[in-house]
Amino acid sequence: MEKAEFNLLNESDFSEDFSNYISSPLVTLEDVEKERERAIKLFELMKASKTDLEKESFNRAYLEAEISYLLAKRTLLEMNKDKNLDEYESFLKELDEKLRDIGYKLNLSRVKKRALEMVEEYL
What we know:
The protein is mainly α. It is built from 3 helices and no strands.
């Protein structure tokens, strides 16, 4: 059996300069718009649901999509806050309350969905 040789590298061994590196954005406007469209579609599916269980399933997915949309929008605004500081600060003021409200609704929806699943399973 041959012995493998390796050298440990120290941080001082690296001289690469990444200061000119332009990274891709974490979130794009298109990403935010897609999340919003997904939330709207799920809301419409929820309204058109034929059973209570189906309605709660879509409601839960809709609420999760709303959270995803809000967080994506926050990230986008945060990335561009130098240009739109007022919009960013205004959005942040309302964000906690919106997330809290959706979070309560989401928990209630999960409980309702589970209760409906149990009723359906045992009937």
